[in-house]
Amino acid sequence: MTRRLLPIAVAxxxxxxxxxxxxxxxxxxxxxxYVADAILAYDDKRYDDALRLLQQALQIDADNVDALYYTGxxxxxxxxxxxxxxxxxRARTLAPNDLSVAFQLGVV
Length: 108
Fold this sequence. Notes:
There is one protein chain. By secondary structure, the protein is mainly α. It has a single domain, classed as Serine Threonine Protein Phosphatase 5, Tetratricopeptide repeat (Alpha Horseshoe), CATH 1.25.40. It is 69% helix and 0% strand. Helix 5 packs antiparallel against helix 6 (99-107). It is globular, with a radius of gyration of 14 Å.
């Protein structure tokens, strides 16, 4: 699933009540909901809100690749490249074949 479609998929799953009907691997977690909200905040350039939501997601699931990825993006958007590298490196460790993560590491 592309990163842009994640908020839509989460909203659909929650709105249609499909969470209980899907397999355990495809269920939306509480961390995923925080990430989806953070993506919306990021898209609206509400970086403080996005970072707060991403931190909440990472408290629940420290290995959430999307939360780590967007944490790096938020820091990069705020021109804090020094803070962007660590979460992106962690995301790359967890998902070494994720091209989006590799690309962002090349940017920062």
